[in-house]
Each structure stands twice: as structure tokens, then as C-alpha cells.
Amino acid sequence: MLSRFFIDRPIFANVIAIVTMIMGGALGNVSDKDISLLENAIGHGIEPLPDGGTVAIETSLTDDRYFATRAVVLDDRRTVVTVEFVCDTYDEMLQHVERLAKNTAIKFAISPSIDIHWPLALERRRAIVGYGEILKFTPRIKSMIHEKLLWHTGENMLAEHVQRAVAVRSQNSIALSSQRSPGPIELARCLVWCAALASRPTATGKPMIVVASG
pLDDT per residue over 115-158, tens digit each? Predict the structure, then answer.
């Protein structure tokens, strides 16, 4: 009976089909493609942030603004991220880098466009990061947020960039997408880079010396 109803009303059936297709696509986008990083974990009682860590630096899409965040791992395994600077020129960015580089424990993660005129004296202390690292690191950062292992020091701009950052499924992973996000997310990208690199396990302890008997 129901099938006969639609056979007798082909135009109505087509409308239902189109609506169903649109709704199915929308639900598919929500459940399968778009994963919004809405968590906003603000750490209390952790300021001032300890020295050292990893500083990630990124430019805006129009290359007219520079953003930097720094991540430090605490003794309790939490990784805390803070905004180090936001500036408008490359020279200003380099001044901030020179200031930060005075602490020899700091390492840098920079995007390819910044690397072009990166100081030669700091080459050994920098890693070049881009979309590949976003693709690699985003799942772990999302897990750290859910596990309450990733915190930030409460800057409004950082919170806004993280809240509006949208991740999309790509190459069997997820990655932050500037195109799908409803506004700038440079600080969120910096957070992904610096937090992932700073929290990687490192070798500890003194090297073992093996003496071979003759």
C-alpha cells in the first residue's frame, strides 16, 4: 500500500528522495567527516610556566601575521601550552625567537615559509612542520585533551582558535582543516605541533658502558 502511494505520486516521491539524500549527507558530515575540537582545558595553579619546552611558530594564511605557542611537560605528565607571541612582521618574529633562544633548552617547530630566512645558528634546534605533522599528531592531541593531559594557560585567543578548529578525516587519520574551520586556527595548529613534540618520550639516564673482556 505504501509503495503504491508513492507510485501514484511521482513528484512527491522525488521530493522525499531529495530531502532524504540531503539529510543523509548532512548527518554523514557530522558523524564521519567533521570532528570539532571544542574542549577548552584551562590549567589552574601552573603559572608561571616552567622554562624550556617546544615553541611552534606559524604564519597566517595571508603571511601577514605570526603566531607562536610553547609547550612544556610537567612532572605529573600534563603538557601545558601558552601563547608566546603574536606579531605582524618577520623581523618582530625573529626578535622573539632571539629572546627565546637564550634558553638553550627550548626547541623550535616552524612552518616551511618561516624556515626560508631562519637564523643559521638555530638550525640544529628547529624542526620543520606542516600538514603531514598535523595529520600525524592531531589524533594524539585529541586523545590528550580527552585524557586531561593537555592544558593551556587561559589566553582567550588560543581558546578561540582551539574551539573553532575543525578536524576532517583524511588518509585514515584526522587533521585540522583551515578550510573547514569557521575562522583562523593558527594557534590551534601551533598547539598541535608543540604539544605533540614536547610530550614525546625522551631517553633518560646515563649511557651504559659495556666492557668486553678479552
Answer: 999 999 999 999 999 999 999 999 898 888 888 888 888 788 98
pTM (global) more than 0.70: yes
Query: Which residue type occupies 200?
Result: R
Cis-peptide into 48, omega within 30 deg:
yes
DSSP 151: E
Helix intervals (H) in 58-89: none
C-alpha cell read off for 86: 603574536
CA distances from 5 to 10, 15, 19, 20 (A): 9, 14, 18, 17
Per-residue pLDDT of 184-197, as tens digits, reads: 999 999 999 999 99
Query: Which residue's C-alpha cell is 611558530?
Result: 57
The C-alpha cell that represents 21 in the structure block: 539524500
The helix (H) or strand (E) run that includes residue 189 is helix 186-198
Please list the residues that pair with 53 across neighbouring strands.
106
- What domains can be seen in the chain, in order of their start residue? 53-198 (3.30.420.240)
User: 187 with 37: CB under 8 angstroms?
Assistant: no
